[in-house]
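Supplementary material to the annual report.
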Amino acid sequence: MEVRRILALGGHDFTSRPPDRAVCELLLRLASERGGERPRICILPTASGDTSEQIGRFYAAFGERPCEPSDLSLFRLGRRPMALRDHLLAQDLIYVGGGSLVNLLAVWEAHDIASILSLAWRRGIVLAGQSAGAMCWFEAGITKSSGRPLAAAGLGLLRGSLCVHYNNEPERRAAYLEAVGDGMPGGYGLDDYAGLLWEGEGSPSALTARRGARAYRVCNRGDSVSESPLPARFLPAPAPAALREDIAEFRRLKSMRKRAGWLG
Amino acid sequence: MKTVPRQIVAFGGGGFSMESGNPLLDDYVLGLTGAERPRVCFLPSASGDADHYIVRFYRAFSAHRCEASHISLFRREQGPDDLRRHLLAQDLIYVGGGSVVSLLGVWRAHGIDEILREAWQAGIILCGLSAGSLCWFAEAVSGFHGAPKRLQGLGLLPFSNCVHYEPKSSRRESYHRFLREGMRAGYAAEDGAALHFTGTELSRVVASRPEARGYRLDVAGQRVVEMRIATTFLGDRGVVPTAAVPEALSTAVAA
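Predicted assembly:
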């Protein structure tokens, strides 16, 4: 049986800043573990309404890396038809972008995407995402899809609930603690740049791409809601793209010189 | 309690979204409000609330002739908090094109479907093109993605609907097949033509292009009966015909 893997991220962007590079590196590594040297990575940007901005940032981050990036934009299918099921099941990693959790689930339901994602997961395709794209894998999350933070249902591939942007949005965290106190299944809180990785059965491992960013276990203890930080592994940022190019250039020169007999 | 006519204007295609420089259909729906400075709300969610589309709406519905607003269901934190109150305060609700499947999904998630029914009953004029036409009907032919599909709309109008009904299009072919397979009778409109319903009766067909037409489609046994409906070209100044009776105006029958 394939190992089922989900990476839930509390919040990040696809910039060239070190913590964002660390997250991209992790995504690339998870995809490569399944797909080898050129894994297929597809973004589902529909929680944002398939904005050019979100799609553009994804390609900027992965376009020059050893992978085959693609996007499945449900609002753009009119101009670019795609076989949804075939495309998704051919991926090594499916990344879901942030935005409106409520709209994401509604549009997925209308296009019957949920069953495909569930099958992809069972086949060992890595499922990942940040913000709405992280909460969607759980039974429930706290979304600001209607303006104020409110509980909303996810796909339920993972038991329990998730609250994202934990450190950045106190009102979201407060709404989460209240909802768990009121009977919503407990779960996790994730700061921006903190993540949880499920690999097969059992508990997830906590990861952090920025010092101080944390993952929390949130439980209803009957008379109170407890919030306990989880020990997290730090993900160092790889060298920036420009530096990688310099290193590659240096190696090319070195091998040319070697061939020409200039060295050794 | 006052009774107001319920009105829907369903464009086969056209208006600012498709006919840059031809404001005839948009002027028509604005004119129906009877208001000097009508309140118009744009619902662009079939496009995923695309920014460029919203900008084009505001350009077409400029402040000197109406009070324009929009609701982005993907960015609720920026819009009106009370969707119902905002929508029920409008004279005209204008639904943009895109994916009708996604549109209906998102509307249901935010309770917009119920609010629109209420708005219609309150006499607020509902209009739209493409997905913004299909959504009002009980059944619709969606050609947004891949082969045309049969789907259910909000059902304010108890008919089927097909948009962009151009001759030899795959939508037309599929619509006829769906009708033979049991889809309820309905109406189709070419690009530039708009079906104006009062209550659940078609009252007239108007067009922004001289050649654009609307059609009534029925099934008799396994035979699809297509009736072309007399259409008023809005560019002919001074022509203000009274309400048309579509059944009396059939001009063509096709298999």
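Chain A touches chain B through 27 residues (CB under 8 Å).
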